[in-house]
Amino acid sequence: MSLADLLxxxxxxxxxxxxxxxxxGGTTVDERGELLVGxxxxxxxxxxxxxxxxxxxxxxxxxxxxxxxxALPGAEVAYASKAFLCRAVARLVDAEGLSLxxxxxxxxxxxxxxxxxxxxxxxxxxxxTPEDLKAALAHRVGRIVVDSLxxxxxxxxxxxxxxxxxxxxxxxxxxxTHAAVTTGVEDQKFGFPLxxxxxxxxxxxxLRQPSLRLVGLHTHLGSQLRRVADFELAARRLVALLAAVxxxxxxxxxxxxxxxxxxxxxxxxxxxxxxxxxxxxxRAAVHDECARHRLRPPRLTVEPGRALVASAGVTVYRVxxxxxxxxxxxxxxxxxxxxxxxALYGARYLVRMVGRxxxxxxxxxxxxxxxxxxxxxxxxxxPLPADVRAGDVLAVPGTGAYHHSLASNYNLVGRPPVVxxxxxxxxxxxxxxxxxxxxxxxVG
Length: 444
Ligand SMILES: Cc1ncc(COP(=O)(O)O)c(C=O)c1O
Fold this sequence. Notes:
single chain, alpha/beta, CATH 2.40.37.10, TIM Barrel, 2 domains, 9-stranded mixed β-sheet, 8-stranded parallel β-barrel, 14 helices, binds pyridoxal-5'-phosphate
């Protein structure tokens, strides 16, 4: 038993135990407060690559890809690349045999640049531009998930060789998540509502296009979803539509894509998504509903994004200033330009001071960014050592998804680099954006 176990006041100072579930697997912390991610000291990485810095533990991503494939044998697992895409991740996902969900010609360009096979790419989006569609067709993507009747016409006009498509359906299932990422309810911009008959009409419209081949249905209920029952309900409703398509058109569609949205723990004490329960219960629901309708069970696709990369990411900041006002503000050298999620969705984070042992007990502080908005908050009311000061290094876990991909140049701040750690190896994956990069676009 250590001294910290015997003296509660001491324990609150040392902060040496790592919170469960929120850090990349294998992350450790020592008594001096040094945090090691993928075998590398975070403070050393901060010194070498500068701050703010985004670290992604590729071994952790690989482990999660394997867990998904093992939990869902026979199903297609497509990584939703909007969560975070760079060439190294595209290569990893390819090597692990996953498919790739892209939403733009830009995401597709990254996939193409590493030779990601087109037939394992799905193109999504509610307003795909002609450039997106042309790039997708040129790369012969496996499937395009159509989202409007206009788009069906556009794809049909451009396509050759009977392009495979899925129809995106909004099944009227509310996943109980933040409104900004709720996409299974019918009153929103994505997909064709089921209950109004719009989805069935979209199927009819696709089937009239000789250049398209309808292969299935798609739905995506939202993000940070925890209730497996919502996926079961959506699956049952979509199977009923598959049966209706069979009855009306004599066509059994072979694919059912249930999207992503599987939640990740963001704070200590939060559970992982029940992947085993999902795999078992959703498959049982599909089989049961198919049996009821005398349908052959379709091949399932799932599209996790966050669940594969969020917990593999750690963002590292340096404290610029500490202000004891009405509350204690700890201001860092990044902010909403590298993490807009607190402002967008009220996302909550854990923050840990790393690199030196604290000399004072924990006290509540609010970690804020450097940007010109009062809402530029990274973590409100989190415990930090009372002696936290300018120059200290802070690490924020759970920042692998929708951070780099949502980053901006607000205040003309360059986006941070991404460094990959992988079983002892370390590699710069995306370099820091420089002033030169920013000025190069400004051609006026
Ligand atoms: C169509 C589609 N599939 C999958 C995902 C991935 O969601 P998540 O990262 O929450 O798993 C998204 C996210 O917006 C999506 O729009």
